Structure of Fibronectin type-III domain-containing protein:
Amino acid sequence: MTFNGTWELNMKPLGVWCVCALLLCCWCSSSAARAVFPAPQNVTIQTLNMNYVLKWDWDPDQARDSAHSVTFTAQYLAMFKTKKPKNKQDWKSVCESTPEHVCDFSSVQLHYLGMWMLRVRAQSGKNVSSWVMKEFCPDRDAVIGPPSAVNITPVIGLLQVAISDPLTITNGSMKEWLPNMYYFIQYCKKSSSAQPNNLTSANNLVVLPELESWTWYCVRVQSRDDYYKKTSVFSPTYCTQTDGQTPSWQIVLYFLLSLALSFLVLVGLFMCTFRVVKVVKSTFFPSVPLPAPIQEYLCDSGSSDTPRLLSTEQELENCCDTLDLLTPDPEVTEVTEVILEVHLPPESSQQSGRTRSRHSSCDSGVYSTEGSGPRQSELGEMKMEKLGRKIRVEELDEGVQDVSV
């Protein structure tokens, strides 16, 4: 009894130990299976000012047996939180399940003076690798860049160098985080094998001393900070020429050239103006005048210089008439008004269809006129009256009539 009772009592602790051993084996086997999946290798951080990029290597042959593609997850956490187990859930993912082998932490804007812990792992389906940790302090580990811009200006035989600070991710100045940053300047003559001259300055505006006038110099600048021995790469090399006082012979030469150029310009303008005036004058005021008969019939009267247009057929016929002015009889001392009437035969009146009359006023004189239209064999009788007196009209050859008073 005692043996059997003792045996029964001893069997209960033995079963408990078996169950615990079985659970421990299962957990160890699962942990071993999880640890078998390889982790990323050669984890590094590439930095420039406040740009931080986490990179790692991965061999595709390490997960050849996996049926799923391999992805990666990268996280960060402040260093002081990693020492407390309850804060381990505060890890923040920047890149999650990405197939790339790089993750950019610049957008997170990690504090430049803080201490951070970065980590990355690989996963493929249910297979997950262990985390690869990386400690990072931007103030200590981040690399500073060269000046963002360098401008060189000649100033009275010297060179003035304007330097722009390196920029942060928000386009701010890196001097906000590195107040002791300064610049290392190298300059030398262009195409010269001599040792370059060196100059250090914390100012953004530097004047290079002891330079030769009218000489080409090349300049490059480097950013430096001595606290963590940070040194940037050199900026691109910029070359420019110094100036100086202009020699007197050059001043005289420039003055003579300017005078010659001004003279040529004035001559050219004068010639152009003369040609334009000549063309305008020859166009609107021709040198050969029109014949006197044409000018007489193109004007309204003998004293008018305004030309008139021939608009009717009758006026075109009148252009062919001839006018003769005869000397008046001395016996006639005063004529105030002369009325000239022309009576045509019936057949002539049918052709012309009109009767012309002309009125004129003058102190004294005799008028001669020739009818327009076709020549008539017989000219009608003309009667002229002036204050009750009749004037005789004599018929001339070719249809020209003399009127005498």
